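Record passed on underneath.
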Amino acid sequence: METTAGVEPFKERAYATALRAGLELVGWIGLPIALWGHSILAAILVDVVLIGVPAVLQTPGDKPGPGGGAVLAVPGWVTVVMVLAELGGAVVAGWLLFWAWAAVLVTVLALACLVTEQPRWKRLLRA
């Protein structure tokens, strides 16, 4: 089995990807909305950090396609930290913007995502 820069080939389950992507959207959209009234600059910077940084810093082989999608290669632990930041952003946005029941739902989904991400994180941390 061929590997890219020490990371096993991409084999993530669709439900894990969908769960993570949905939570990323909550953070990407929710945090700037929550921050806008306090600081427009902070609202813009949070999206630069949550969207821009992971788009540029990637672990080779973590994404499907030629070259694994990496623009600037980083070790697997950096990708894990970025995902944790995005999940944390989603939870914070949920509690700042949503009704309590919806914030609880976002928090539970983020906890579920921690479970569904384990195979990917183990693979990334082995690299």
Notes: The radius of gyration is 15 Å.
